[in-house]
Every structure is written in C-alpha cells, then in structure tokens.
C-alpha cells in the first residue's frame, strides 16, 4: 500500500476507533443507569424489543425457522453490530466535522429514546438510560476527536512520539497519537468496562427475583392431578417423556430480558366489563384452593414435527371462579391478559368458563413457576395455543370484546382465535437416521387438547396404514405417546403418521404453515435401514 493510503487507513482507523470507544462508553453508561431504573430500560433492550414489536409475521416465522429459540441472541448480536457500525461511522465523520458526528450521536439518542417510549409497558423513567448514554457518548466523542479539549490546544498538532503521519494533513484536525491518545482511549475503555460490569452486577442484585422464588412455598393442591389408569409412558428410548421436565420445556416469548416480578410485589387486577373489579396479591391468590392438572402447552409457531410443545403438571387457581366473583358481563366475549412487559393475549371468555381447567398457574411440575415460564403467575388454558391463552408474568385481565380490542399478535397477522389443531410427531427414528434392520419402534406423541386422541396410524412408504399402540390417556388435555413396531427391511424409507381425535376428525394431510393459526400436515421422515 502507498504511504498515503496507509496514512489514510490509519487516521480513519483511529477515528473509527474513537467512535467505537465513545459508543461503547455510551452503552456502558446506559447499562449502569438502567441499574437504577430497570433492566428493560437498557437501550440495547429497548431497541431490540422495538425491533421484535415491529417484526412482521413472515419475518418472525423465518427467524424461528432459522435460529429457533436462539432468535433473541441473533437479534442482540444484530443490534450490537449495527450500533458498532454506526458508532464507527460517527467517529470517522467527527474527525472532520465534529458537529456532524454529534448530530449522529443525537440521532442515535432520539432513536433509543423513541424505542424506550414505544414499549407497551413503558415507564417514563425508561428514557433516562438512553439520555445518559447519549450525553456520555457525545462528551466522549468530543474528548477523543479533539484531545486538545482535554490536553490543551497545543498538543493537538504536536504528536508526542514522532508518528508524524497524523500531522501530515494539517487542514483536517488530527487524531491524537502517542501516549496521550493511549491514555484517553485506554481510560475510556477502562471506564466503560467498569461501568458496564458494575451496572450489570447492580442489575442482578437489584432485580433478580430468584430469591423471591426460592421463598415461595406452594400449598398442597386441594385437587391433586388424578392418577391416570395405567402407564402414560411407553418407555421407549428417544421418545419424549410424558411430562416434560422444566429445564427441557420450550420457551417462547418476546421478552429480551426476562420480566422479574417478586411474588411479594405481584398483583393482578381484573377489570373492564365486570360488575366488581378484583385486585388480588400473591398471598391472597395462593390462599385459594388450587387444582393440579397435566396439560400440554403448544405454540402456534410449532411447525409439523417441531419442538415447541410440552406437557407439565400445572398447579393453579381456577380462573372461572375468580371471573364469576368479578361478574364478567355477558357481552364481554374476550379476556385480554396483560403481562408486566406489556404483552397482551386475548382469550375467548366462553372457553375459559366452559368447565375446562383454565387456571392462573403458580406451580409447574411441583415447583413455583420458573422465571422464564412466567413467575410468579401465568395463565394456562387447555386446548388453546399459547399466544391466545398462556400469558406469562400476568398482571392484568381485562374483560372486553373481540370487536373492541386486538391483542398483540392479531395486528401482526395471527388469528384472533387459536384452538390447537390435532397433530402428531414422530420422535424416533429421527429424520435421516440410519437404523439397523430388525424390529424398530416407530414412536412419538399425538395431541388434540381438550378433545383427546383416539388413534394414531403409521405408514411406511406406500404400504397400508398401520394402527399404532397408544399409551394410556392421562387426560384429554395432554398429548399421548404411541408406538408401532416395524419389521424394517434394508433400504431407504419414508415414514409418516396421522392422528385421529375423539371427535372422529382425522389429521389432515394438507400442508399449511404456522401462520395465521397453526400448521397442519402429516409429519413425514426419511430414513435408511442398513
Ligand atoms: N408475557 C408473555 N407471555 C407469553 C408470551 C409472551 O411473549 N409474553 N408468549 C406466549 C406464547 S406464543 C407461548 S407459545 C407460550 C409459551 O410458554 P412457555 O415459554 O412457558 O413454553 O407463552 C405465551 N405467553
Ligand atoms: Mo406461541
């Protein structure tokens, strides 16, 4: 490279570094400030959440397909990279036109403030970290690009250690070099690391609710889960267990940071079209008789054969009783539950009141709800996809109508009504597996919540459909394991399955994607017998 080119690269590189360091310091200062506001107010979170809120259905489906539940990590990295690029550009621009660099900082500040204000459960103080971050970023940018401000005018064009290239374009304010620059940049990076570290630590200390969760003692259920008549477990290797352990239970939500509500601080308000508003705290709620029920929860974003389904033993307070006490008006056909992070979920009132085990759950598989699954209280309604029933971190239920209110996912292209579709999944053998010849179990799970599974059939290649053996039914609200033993002959094979529910409906082979109201089709795998 020519000396001039090298010089250009070096000054621009140094200027870009100024931008990056100023940007990093701004983010660190914002993180630190968020420790005194709330975790959700950190600009990386508010900006990421705003992106999530604005993601159209197609893009969301794509992201889930590409990244699964790592989509949030990908988003965080994306926002971070974007910010870094902006910061570097601002640094380069500021070398020549400081005002333009500062304008860039201002624009980022406005964007982050707007992001904080656009969150549905926004608090006014949420803008403070963004404002502090922008101010710190601006000051850092000035100090780094115009070190004369810090060290006095004279030093600006007099590099201390003989790196004279920096002074070679005297018409453009130079980037400081030598020990003083190292002091500045090093100091800023050090300050950033300390601020961010202390900020994160303070956030953990101040907002972590795991202590509150460990203090929760659930009362024994007044109505324990009924014992199933025989084994719901077929005990086949690689088959999903009937009850999904909490650590394996899928997690789907829009929360970039998990909402953390201490049980002691939790309150639920039932209001809207009701005769008597109810406000109830955690102690009052758990003093009521609780039921314990096995219920299979399923995400509308679960593709045919997908992983976003699980069964837990939920303990909770029957929701219908509470609603009867509130006196929900007959015309209120929709219950909108709201979480502490502003998610809204709309559930048909009639479904909640029809006698099924709709509950405000406080326990999951014998423990208080895990924080990611909605601690301290969430809703669970058998038979409905999660996005229309299973509000986590619930703080409010409003009785309203479908005509009057669209819950979060509805304007984003998802159906207002979301009953779970009858479906089934092959767990073993795996797609693309190579299996030795002989007697092979073809096994999986089938579900038709609140209807119940009546039969599962298995088809190898184009041979006749075979009746699979079903595990004992736990309840109509849970999935059911099945197995069919296959005398497998060598060669490549296609295996597919279909379930029939207790209404007589046979799972359709029509392949439909997850939007707007849940995927259909027969789960089909290819495998080879060796
Ligand atoms: N507050 C809140 N509750 C929520 C969601 C959410 O994004 N925020 N997602 C819903 C969806 S789409 C599903 S499928 C279930 C998933 O519950 P889980 O994460 O406990 O499996 O939670 C539901 N409740
Ligand atoms: Mo979902």
UniProtKB/TrEMBL annotation:
InterPro entries tied to this protein: Ig_E-set, OxRdtase_Mopterin-bd_dom, OxRdtase_Mopterin-bd_sf
Key words, A-Z: Membrane, Transmembrane, Transmembrane helix
UniProt xrefs under Pfam families: Oxidored_molyb
Residues spanning the membrane: 73-91, 97-115, 127-145
Superkingdom of source: Bacteria
Residue ranges occupied by any Oxidoreductase molybdopterin-binding domain in the UniProt entry: 257-408
Protein name: Sulfite oxidase
């Amino acid at each position: 490279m020519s000396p001039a080119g090298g010089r250009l690269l070096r000054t621009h590189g140094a200027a870009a570094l100024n931008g990056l360091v100023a940007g990093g310091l701004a983010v660190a200062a914002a993180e630190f400030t968020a420790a005194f506001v709330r975790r959700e107010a950190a600009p990386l979170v508010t900006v990421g959440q705003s992106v999530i809120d604005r993601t159209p259905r197609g893009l969301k489906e794509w992201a889930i397909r590409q990244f699964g539940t790592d989509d949030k990590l990908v988003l965080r990295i994306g926002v971070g990279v974007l910010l870094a690029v902006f910061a570097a550009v601002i640094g380069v621009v500021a070398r020549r036109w400081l005002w333009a660099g500062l304008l860039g900082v201002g624009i980022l500040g406005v964007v982050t403030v707007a992001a904080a204000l656009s969150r549905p459960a926004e608090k006014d103080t949420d803008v403070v970290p963004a404002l502090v971050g922008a101010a710190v970023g601006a000051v850092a940018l000035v100090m780094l690009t115009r070190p004369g401000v810090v060290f006095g005018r004279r030093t600006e064009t007099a590099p201390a250690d003989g790196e004279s290239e920096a002074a070679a374009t005297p018409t453009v304010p130079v980037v400081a070099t030598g020990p003083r620059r190292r002091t500045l940049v090093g100091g800023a990076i050090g300050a950033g690391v300390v601020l961010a570290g202390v900020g994160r630590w303070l956030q953990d200390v101040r907002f972590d609710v795991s202590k509150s969760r460990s203090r929760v003692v659930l009362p024994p259920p007044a109505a324990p889960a009924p014992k199933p008549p025989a084994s719901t477990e077929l005990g086949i290797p690689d088959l999903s267990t009937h009850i999904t352990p909490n650590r394996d239970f899928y997690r789907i939500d829009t929360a970039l940071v998990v909402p953390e509500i201490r049980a002691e601080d939790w309150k639920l308000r039932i209001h809207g079209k009701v005769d008597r508003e109810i406000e109830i705290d955690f102690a009052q709620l758990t003093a009521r008789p609780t039921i314990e029920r096995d219920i299979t929860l399923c995400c509308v974003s679960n593709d045919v054969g997908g992983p976003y389904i699980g069964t837990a033993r939920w303990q909770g307070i029957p929701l219908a009783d509470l609603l009867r006490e509130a006196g929900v008006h007959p015309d209120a056909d929709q219950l909108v539950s709201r979480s502490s992070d502003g998610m809204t979920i709309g559930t048909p009132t009639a479904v909640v009141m029809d006698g099924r085990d709709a509950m405000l759950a406080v326990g999951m598989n014998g423990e208080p709800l895990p924080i990611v699954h909605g601690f301290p209280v969430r809703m669970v309604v058998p038979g409905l996809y999660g996005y229309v029933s299973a509000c986590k971190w619930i703080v409010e239920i409003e009785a309203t109508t479908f005509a009057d209110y669209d819950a979060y996912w509805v304007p984003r292209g998802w159906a207002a009504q979301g009953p779970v579709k009858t479906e089934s999944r092959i767990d073993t053998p795996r797609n693309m597996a190579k299996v030795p010849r002989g007697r092979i179990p073809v096994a999986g799970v089938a579900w038709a919540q609140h209807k119940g599974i009546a039969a599962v059939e298995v088809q190898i290649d184009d041979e006749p459909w075979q009746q699979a053996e079903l595990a004992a039914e736990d309840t109509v609200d849970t999935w059911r394991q099945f197995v069919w033993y296959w005398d497998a002959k060598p060669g490549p094979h296609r295996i597919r399955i279909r379930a029939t529910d207790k209404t007589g409906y046979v799972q359709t082979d029509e392949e439909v994607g997850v939007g707007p109201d849940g995927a259909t089709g027969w789960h089909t795998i290819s495998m080879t017998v060796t």
